[in-house]
Amino acid sequence: MAIAREAEPVGSLREVRDAGLDREDLLQVYRNMVLTRGIEERGHILYRQGKIPGSFYTGRGNEAASVGVAAAMGPDDVGTPLHRDMGVHVTRGVEPWRIFAQYMGRVDGPTRGRDGNVHMADSKLGLIAMVSHLPAMLPVAVGAALAFRIREEKRVAVAWFGEGASARGDCHEGMTLAGVRKLPVVFVCDNNQWAYSTPTHLEYATEHVADRADAYGFEGIVVDGTDVLAVYREVKRAIEKARAGGGPTLIESLTLRMEGHAVHDDAFYVPKQMFEEWAKSDPLERFRTWLRENADLTDEEEDEIASEVKRTLNEALRRAEESPLPEAPQLLEGVYASPEDLDTPHHK
Amino acid sequence: MAELTYLQAISDGLRTEMRRDKRVFVIGEDVGVYGGAFKVTLGFQEEFGHWRVIDAPLAETAIVGACTGAAIMGMRPVAEMQFADFISCAWDQLVTVAAKQRWRAGTPVPMVVRLPSGGGFSGGPFHSQNPESSFAHIPGLKCVCPATPEDAKGLLISAIEDPNPVLYFEHKHLYRRIKAEVPEERYTVPIGKARVHQEGEDISVITWGAMVYTAEEAAKQLDDVSVEIVDLRTVMPWDKAAVLESVRKTSKVLVLHEDTRTGGFGAEIAATIAEDAFEDLDAPVKRIAAPDTPVPFSPPLEKAFIPQVDDVAAGLRELAEY
Prior knowledge:
The complex is a heterodimer. By secondary structure, chain A is α/β, with parallel strands linked by helices. Chain A has one domain: Thiamin diphosphate (ThDP)-binding fold, Pyr/PP domains (Rossmann fold). Chain A is built from 12 helices and 8 strands. In chain A, the strands form 2 sheets. A 6-stranded parallel β-sheet of chain A has the order 1-7-8-4-3-2, with helices on both faces. A two-stranded antiparallel ribbon of chain A has the order 5-6. Chain B is an alpha/beta fold. Helix content of chain B is 37%, strand content 21%. Chain B contains 11 helices and 14 strands. In chain B, helix 2 links the parallel strand 2 and strand 3. In chain B, helix 1 packs parallel to helix 6, helix 3 packs parallel to helix 4 and helix 8 packs across helix 9. Chain B is globular and about 60 Å long. The mean pLDDT of chain B is 98. Chains A and B meet through helix 6 and helix 7 of A and helix 3 and helix 4 of B.
């Protein structure tokens, strides 16, 4: 039996305005979703061209969830997005050419070729770079929230994890600490229903991951992760509650991972019917239709967004390909931080 | 100057930094109301409040992970593991996240993890270990192991000031046994600098932590041999130059530690001496360390495990006669 609250879809434009988004914001959200998908589609092409070493991961199907959460964050809030959350980097303002440089292991990627994929973050944009041990970032986000609480700042940390990562101890420990201390943190579970090849019934025995929130002393909410406005509304409420001292919330955003775990994986284990069913609620298509029906999105506006994104991507690819590969001696730089490295916005 | 125990010197260093810098906070199990299992933070919560002296749930992963997040947000966290042994629960946070964040993502993680370590009082396999070599092997982490009250205070202040994750191994057998004059004012002891505990001419002992005193006692048993004791103080980064200088002077060397032998940090020191000072040696490098077993509980077994004064004296004699 579900314990978590199951969120309703968002209806009218008025309801959206009440949640804090005007028409211009809505178009920006749509543009960020289109750009997010565009970056990952271009990444796929680069991978097939042999320009991306290692493997390649995308968040196809998660664009609404990642952009919706990021749109609800304030400028001084921070987060630990994962590999299905490209939309968070895009919304926070990372320059797309730097993402391509990161993919290709070039020096202008945020990790300067030291790490690949979406293992990156621009700390100036309030993001902390993920590690492969996915739930490890939950206690880190809780620690950011702890810093805000100690300093009595009205800032919130957002911690991402997947339903697969929810099995690990870090998840339990992070939520326990956040719960007992009522820390300003919002836990976002990207539940894409597959941990590599493992289905949800072999990952957790409750109906929802969000049902667990009750056990940690805070609210759990399940939201349709293909509905960008519902994600935005629920996360916005949770963030403002945390900001006001109301403690954590666990929001489970339900989607389907529309591709394999990574580019090498054809996801043969996912029933074809499941893909067909979820393809009907493609997040981009769903929001585009909503905008047409509720916010008078015109053909011209749509074309303008599409061509601006295309120009941005072309320019980004050109610039990233000009970025050099790192040179061997750079390997040894910066294993240890020097005192000057602390001269960052966070360390004043 | 006041005479302080090793434990009081740790408290003094921590209190000094907390008074000076509002970014410094303490988090751990029972560190607040109870003052810590060994009372290092006794009275801290009264002075600094419960948001700077935080009683955490029994969750080492959350403690160390939260320190990482808070450090990235500009705080200077000091985590206490109740026993160094429990750091195994937070391995991932230290090794996967904190150690690599600066190199990978350009984000420094200035934090300290205090680790009450070492045996000698029947703590058994889970309350007696010296896991410094495991962490010295991880690029991005620093490991300090003070032996004296003066270094305990100065190295803790340096560790808090350092922009990297620093593991501070405090040996439990020194807590109340070792007392010395400690300056009352704030001072730092540089990380990565060894200290000559005792000058000598014939044999160098390279050691750290509680074994400094074992070496000192052993040296007293040899009337006709002059022993130099180098207290490494910092295991990572370690003072290669000071070790090589001492080896070149004496030409015979004993590497001594309380951690187990195979893959212990002494192996790294011995290998470095073999690479860089082979021509200066008059005897093979000798290692004395605990045998490759878990730490035992029963006193006769524990005595057989931890290098004893007589074991070290025998090793020194062997080297002297070589």
